[in-house]
């Protein structure tokens, strides 16, 4: 039996990378999926429809409150409700490695606007609906870098630390309304974004692999099982948690 039959899910940042795998994974479990991205997500949506699922792309910049409100309104108009919000969109792979004192104030603010305020805007926009229903699942994507204090990406790592903190605050505030809020913290994953950047050299990826208990490279599919679990009734009594899925590099 499909674990998410008839649920309606928004997955941000699902035009490519890990988000696209989440969208396809949720759809395979029966969810109707809205792909929200600044990039064109038509191909992800089409791949779900080709697999006999239901999906729709809505162009959205998660750092713009008006875009996010339109996303929620269009989703409800088309599918009737929202049961699941996956806050996956982030600026990451394009940042490159920089010492913290080389990061401009503008870039710092941009990363915070997308990676921290984006999930906040999305959670805020679905809140009235989920509170009224007395049900909902929100899954935020953090990062294993928070627990390692990875250097040369200070704005990114700080933003994901904020996502862990936000997950806990949202869990407390949404809890009385029976809405679960959890996070997944992936390790370095061979997503489209990472594969498209030269900053992650083979040597770096190999040494990252060797820091794991399970000695192999992480791929987006490694994260889908935990995502489905957190969106399904199997996790109904879990909230405020951050699950590290990284092959055992950090043990949190
Ligand atoms: N790949 C990794 O090693 C890794 C590790 C830990 C955490 N993560 C996290 O996983 C998530 C997905 O990462 P990925 O590697 O697949 O990245 P990616 O760059 O391949 O995909 C990110 C997606 O987010 C979208 N996006 C960016 N800004 C947006 C905005 N303002 N509004 C809407 N969409 C926007 C992009 O267009 C893209 O489709 C991110 O939250 C990232 O921080 C990735």
Gist?
The chain is of the alpha/beta class and 252 residues long. It is 44% helix and 15% strand.
Description:
This protein is of the alpha/beta class. It has one domain: NAD(P)-binding Rossmann-like Domain (Rossmann fold). Helix content is 44%, strand content 15%. The chain has nine helices and seven strands. It has a seven-stranded parallel β-sheet with strand order 3-2-1-4-5-6-7, with helices on both faces. α2 links the parallel β2 and β3. α1 packs across α9 (224-231), α3 (65-79) packs parallel to α4 (105-133) and α4 (105-133) runs parallel beside α6. The chain is globular and about 45 Å long. The two termini are 32 Å apart. The mean pLDDT is 97. Bound molecules: nicotinamide-adenine-dinucleotide.
Question: What keywords describe this structure?
Answer:
7-stranded parallel sheet; Rossmann fold; about 250 residues; binds nicotinamide-adenine-dinucleotide; about 45% helix; alpha/beta
SSE blueprint and pairings:
Blueprint: E1 8-12, H1 17-28, E2 32-37, H2 42-50, E3 54-59, H3 65-79, E4 84-87, H4 105-133, E5 136-141, H5 145-148, H6 154-174, E6 179-186, H7 192-195, H8 202-210, H9 224-231, E7 242-245
Helix pairs in contact: 1-2, 1-9, 3-4, 4-6
Nicotinamide-adenine-dinucleotide binds at residues 12-13, 15-19, 37-39, 60-63, 88-93, 114, 118, 141, 143, 186, 188-189, 191-194.
Mean pLDDT figure: 97
- Order of strands across the biggest sheet? 3-2-1-4-5-6-7
Using only C-alpha atoms, the radius of gyration works out to 17 Å
Overall form = globular
Oligomer: single chain
> Ions, cofactors, ligands: which are bound?
nicotinamide-adenine-dinucleotide
Note the main sheet: 7 strands, parallel
* Count of alpha/pi helices: 9
CATH class: Alpha Beta
Total strand segments: 7
Query: What is the CATH topology assignment?
Result: Rossmann fold
Helix content: 40-55%
Total number of domains: 1
Question: Which CATH-level-2 architecture?
Answer: 3-Layer(aba) Sandwich
User: Approximately how much beta-strand content do the residues carry?
Assistant: 15-25%
Order of helices and strands: EHEHEHEHEHHEHHHE
Report how far the terminal alpha carbons are from each other. Answer: 32 Å
Low-confidence parts: none
CATH superfamily: NAD(P)-binding Rossmann-like Domain
Structural class: alpha/beta
């Amino acid at each position: 039996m499909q674990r998410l039959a008839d649920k309606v899910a928004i997955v941000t940042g699902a035009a490519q990378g890990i988000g696209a795998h989440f969208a396809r994974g949720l759809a395979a479990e029966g969810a109707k999926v809205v792909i929200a991205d600044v990039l064109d997500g038509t191909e992800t949506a089409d791949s779900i429809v080709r697999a006999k699922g239901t999906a729709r792309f809505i162009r959205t910049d998660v750092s713009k409150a008006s875009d996010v409100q339109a996303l929620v309104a269009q989703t409800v108009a088309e599918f009737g409700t929202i049961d699941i919000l996956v806050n996956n969109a982030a600026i990451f792979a394009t940042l490159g490695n920089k010492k913290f004192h080389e990061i401009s104030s503008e870039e710092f603010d941009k990363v915070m606007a997308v990676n921290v305020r984006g999930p906040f805007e999305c959670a805020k926009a679905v809140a009235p609906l989920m509170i009224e229903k007395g049900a909902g699942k929100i899954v935020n994507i953090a990062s294993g870098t928070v627990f390692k204090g990875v250097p040369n990406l200070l704005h990114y790592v700080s933003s994901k630390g904020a996502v862990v903190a936000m997950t806990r605050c949202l869990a407390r505030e949404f809890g009385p309304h029976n809405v679960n809020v959890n996070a997944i913290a992936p390790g370095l994953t061979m997503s489209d974004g990472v594969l498209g950047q030269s900053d992650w050299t083979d040597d770096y990826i190999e040494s990252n692999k060797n820091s794991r208990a399970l000695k192999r490279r992480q791929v987006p599919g490694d994260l889908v099982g935990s995502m489905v679990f957190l969106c399904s009734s199997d996790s109904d009594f879990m909230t405020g948690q951050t699950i590290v899925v990284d092959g055992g590099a950090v043990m949190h």
